[in-house]
Amino acid sequence: MRKNPIALLMAAILSGSTSVASAATWQAGDWELGLGGNVNTFYTVTQCDSGKLGAGGGTMTGLACLDPDTGTLTDGDTHSVSNGLLPASLNFSAKTKQNGYDISGNVNVYYGTATQDTNKLPGDALDFSTVDARQVYLTFGNERMGTVKAGRDFGLFGFDPIINDMSLSGNGAMFTAAGPGHTTLGGLGYGYVYTDRLSQINWTSPKRNGFEATVGVFNPVDGQESNGVTTQSTRDGGQPGFHGKASYDFDRGNGVKGHVSVSGLSQKVKLANGNKPSITGAEIFGKVDVNKASFAASYYQGEGMDTLGIGGIIFPGFDSTTGEAEKSKGGMLQATYKLGKTKLGLNLAQSKQTHLTKVKNDKVTLGAYHNLTDNLSLIGEVSHQKSDLEGVGTDKSGSVAVGAMLSF
Question: Can you give the residue ranges of the Porin domain (predicted)?
């Protein structure tokens, strides 16, 4: 039986492969061209009880109940039909070998299924869904020199947790259920920071005895700073960001194999007061498969970021007056087990901000993922989230999602 293509796609990305798994490949002269992707849709009921939004919805949990059209919180159950954590995608690759070098180009475009307010007219009629070219990059290298990647792709810090989150093919925590975009949150902001899509140039070493390392530079990102009254964007510090990752893969036989990695990033920003502090982050990840069971865990610490994004998204990453950086930390624990064609899973995630804005986020997700065919999966998840914002209150929300994913 052929392996599930979505699993092959994730494995290709995880291993640093220079081309993604494709449903179709064909030769065009010396070039091998590939085409693949996925389509997924979920019906989700999100609990948004105003009596349980004690922090006023201004937290990670509150994001599930935010109506982006009105800027207010919904009250009561919200029903939506939209993508899950992974948007629909169309992935194109081209690769060949020239003068002893393996070279490739990859263009992966992601699509939303839910209508967005793009025409700025009242209502949603005649509006469109979103399109996002998340990955556009080239690679070149060989077994001796390793591989150079240049272009737009996911960052290194925070990548392994999201790519191994069981909700990658599901929903996890909901995001603006009253006006869904082309993705949910999964475990973003709860167990790990979003790796983000960065314009970058990296070098990955040849893989030796399971060990591999990647170092590179990325186009610096702007963050957020606040003086307690107003919030504004920081500016980059006039130099590139730096990130790196080291990993080890092992296979002990008898169904026991695993992956361990450490990653980090550092980037200067410039605040309104002229200070130039840094965004920094470090993370460790591990996963072990034991026959039909799989266990994963991660932990991170960061400065100059909230629990969701580099530089700060929901809460500012820096204090405009003092120049101090927010401090955040978090992690996830996950266990899954396969029963025939069905995988059952439990994911626990927690994150904290401990300096400028003190908040604690918790998420629990239970999921069932059934391979109806080699290419079609039926999925059901139940999630519960809670955010405690110190001095303000507690937001609580939850969701039930059922849907399907077709990978090709």
Answer: 12-388
